[in-house]
Amino acid sequence: MQLETYISDLLYRYECVIIPQFGAFLTQAVSAKVHESTNAFYPPKKVLSFNEQLKQNDGLLAKYIADVEKIPYETAVVKLSKKTKALKSYLAEGETLTFKNIGDLVLTNEGKITFTPSYHLNYLTDAFGLSQFVSPSISREVYKEEVEAIEKVVPLTITPEKRKSKPYLKYAAIALIALTIGSFTASNYYVNQIEQHNLLAQEEANKAIENKVQEATFIIDNPLPAVTLNVTKQTGNFHIVAGAFRFEENCDKKLNQLKGLGYSARKIGENRYGLHQVIYSSYETRAEAQKALYDIRTNENKDAWLLVKKLD
Length: 312
Known about the structure:
Layout: H1 3-11, E1 16-19, E2 23-30, E3 33-35, E4 40-42, E5 45-51, H2 60-69, H3 73-92, E6 97-99, E7 103-107, E8 113-117, E9 133-134, H4 143-153, H5 167-215, E10 238-245, H6 248-260, E11 266-270, E12 276-283, H7 286-299, E13 305-308
Antiparallel strand pairs: 1-2, 2-5, 3-4, 4-9, 6-7, 7-8, 10-12, 10-13, 11-12
Helix pairs in contact: 2-3
């Protein structure tokens, strides 16, 4: 039984996954964070924890195992019970239980189970495709404080310079202003004339086009026979996601690649982070989708995941 795989699948969609008579894995969504000293940016995610007090069978894990393995629910409960006994015996012998992409469980000397989560997967589907990155620190220079410090040491004194009066400069300035105003007025007049000309030319062109359209007669002597295309529309609320891309051209490349492999792939739009998503296919039932997901993870893409959503 691939217990860790089943639990991992359920953690994407549920906040609590209970292993009957053993304990429960819990998830809690946390916001994106920035580390002040390293300038590292961390995307939003689900933080994993373990509570050994939650042991009552809620039927979620057993029903999921029954759907995926196509066995009766009662048989799944029996298999799960045997697996739980084996896990308890391993812990009692001092072994560390490692659940892939989930974390490690260890039994302490006091008889309590401690959990160390794994950070290889982000179970928050809204953050799919987002990764950690480090931004260089920004150096800011405060010039005002430096100038004030200089002025305290070396005060600045401005002495107006005496100049002889030159009347002809006054007349030259007046002439320059008059020329500038005249040039500006002429420029505006020229621009207005060009705009009026363009409007008239456009109106004449539109009238000519309308006359040509009214005079045109379209006669088809041998019309082509009608062609009926049968297009199968994908339905279902269970979708296997192949990837999410920040640039739509990368999404289109992935779409063409999947269609070349024979999948009924399509784009389903952007998620809340602006990433373009493409799926392998959609399915009516969870069992069909889980079987296809298992085959794709085994043979094609280990990072594919199941999205449960009603698409428009």
